[in-house]
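Exercise 7b. Backbone tokens:
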């Protein structure tokens, strides 16, 4: 299982709607509105890195109101 944090920038005033929509997607563990350079932070999981990438591109980035994403895979050193 691969987990990642997805940092999301949204259009002005869209953070709550984006977080709510993303929280219902398969593989999403948590989606929270935050302040700072990003508007929403998501914790997600998938079986493989490729599956995670497909989820971000095919599902997360298609949510209306998102302007940019940054995916940060969790590593265990």
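Sequence design result:
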């Amino acid at each position: 299982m691969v987990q990642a944090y997805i940092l999301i920038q949204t259009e002005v005033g869209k953070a709550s709607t984006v977080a709510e929509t993303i929280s219902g997607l398969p593989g999403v563990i948590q989606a929270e509105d935050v302040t700072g350079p990003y508007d929403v932070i998501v914790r997600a999981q998938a079986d493989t890195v490729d599956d995670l990438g497909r989820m971000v591109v095919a599902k997360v980035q298609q949510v209306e109101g998102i302007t940019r994403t940054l995916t940060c895979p969790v590593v265990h050193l």
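Instructor comment: Residues 49-58 form the longest helix (10 residues). Residues 3 and 43 are 7 Å apart (CA to CA).
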